[in-house]
Amino acid sequence: MLLQATQLSCIRQDRVLFEQLSLQLNAGELLQIAGKNGAGKSSLLRLLANLATPEDGHIQYLKYSLTQAADDYAANLCYIGHHSGIHEHLTAIENISFWRASTGVAAADDYPLLAKLGLAGLEDIPCRMLSAGQQRRVSLARLWFTPRKIWILDEPFTALDQAAIALLQQHFLTHLQRGGGIILTTHQPLTLQYPEMRKLELAYRW
After folding, report:
1. pTM surpassing 0.90?
2. Segment 43-94, tens digit of pLDDT
3. NCBIfam families, from UniProt (predicted)?
4. Are residues 112 and 64 in the same domain?
5. What is the dihedral of CA 165, 166, 171, 174, to 10 degrees?
6. How many domains does the chain have?
7. What own/partner pairs with CB < 8 Å and gap ≥ 24 does 172-179 have?
């Protein structure tokens, strides 16, 4: 077991998004969080990423509470939210160099990676000049070199074309085959057959 949440409750602006919610993520498994807009999908991901605190319930990483294992968990988590999380004044190459340095990953020639992601010729342009889809590709590039086991991704396919979505889904499969785990939200259909995949549907509560 990589991650387990037990009896979670979440309240936002006096509205109960969900309560007594439990889930588990195992190595090699993809868990899709589904539900209508406003059901609490992003809020749940933020709780699981230890970026917010639930009203009730607790979360465990490798059988340790996040309070006990916060540093170890952070070192093994890659969270990408709705926003790209890039430095817009930096180029794509500079953003990747920053992520490598800040996470202790050795420097490398990342031009081939950016070309693979459809960014050939755009590597040295400030990211503020890139389209939303191109910025998203820069943000997602870290998934190709991060050693972190748990990926929590909020709408990772946003602004991507079908070719990029297919490439990313294939990379998900590679990560799962290496023993990683993925929790994500998406309005796009998952077209690959993953060996271990579950869906958790959140009901919208008035």
Report:
1. yes
2. 999 999 999 999 999 999 998 999 899 999 999 999 999 888 999 999 999 9
3. ccmA, PRK13538.1
4. no
5. 150
6. 2
7. 172/30, 175/143, 175/151, 176/28, 176/29, 176/30, 177/28, 179/27, 179/28, 179/149
Judge residue 174's burial from the number of C-beta atoms within 10 Å of its C-beta, 0-12 exposed, 13-18 middle, 19 or more buried: exposed
Last residue of a domain, one of 133, 148, 163: 148
65: β partners: 60
- Tokens in use for 32? 């899709």
Identify residue 71 by its one-letter amino acid code.
D
Number of residues in the chain: 206
Q: pLDDT (tens digit, 9 = 90+) per residue, 139-159?
A: 999 999 999 999 999 999 999
- In the block, which residue shows the tokens 């498994």? 29
Using CA atoms, how far apart are residues 104 and 57, in angstroms rounded to an integer?
33
Sheet holding 181-185, edge to edge: 77-80, 150-154, 181-185, 30-35, 197-202
CATH number at residue 25: 3.40.50.300
CA pair distance 136, 48, nearest whole angstrom: 22
